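User: Fold both of these, please.

Assistant: Here is the first one.
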Amino acid sequence: SMTPTELRKFILFVTGAPRLPVGGLKNLKPPLTIVRKTPDPTFDVPSKIADALPSVMTCANYLKLPDYTLEETMREKLFLAMMEGQNSFHLS
C-alpha cells in the first residue's frame, strides 16, 4: 500500500503524467503493463537481481520489474527508482 503522495510519485514514474485520466487506471491509454525485467546477457559481469532497479517506458505505461525474491526488496528498489529517477531520461 502507498500513501497518496507515494501513489502520485508512482503514477508520475510509470506514466510521465502527474495524475491518472478521469476514470482512473481503467481509462489509461495505453493500459498499464507490468512485466519481468530480464538481466542483460551482454554484460561481462553477471547482474545481481537484488541490486537491479525497475525501469519504465512512460510512452507505453510499461513497468519492468526485476524478479526480486522478496517483496520488501521490490518495494525498496521501486521507491528508490521513483525518487531518484524523477526528471531523468535514459534509453533502455
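And the second sequence with its predicted structure:
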Amino acid sequence: KREVSIMFSDIKEFTNISETLRPKDTLLLLTRYLDVMSRIAQSFDGVVAEILGDGLLVYWNTPDAVPDHSVKAATTALAQLRA
C-alpha cells in the first residue's frame, strides 16, 4: 500500500457558461481548458486518470512513485488557479 494524492478540477459554473455560448465556442473553451490544465498537472508529475465532462481527475504517486506528491498536487492546484 502507498499514500497517493488525488485532485479533481473543473470549470466553475460550466453549465451556466456553456448555456450562453454557441456549441462551437463551448467546444473551443473546453478543449483549451482541458489542454492547459492537463499540461499543468503533468508538469508537476501528475497523471491525468480521467477527463469527466469539464473536469480532470489527477493522481500522484501512482502508478509510479512521486517524491513530495502532496506538495506537487497542491502546487498544481495553485498553478491552475493562476492559469
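The chain is about 50% helix and 20% strand.
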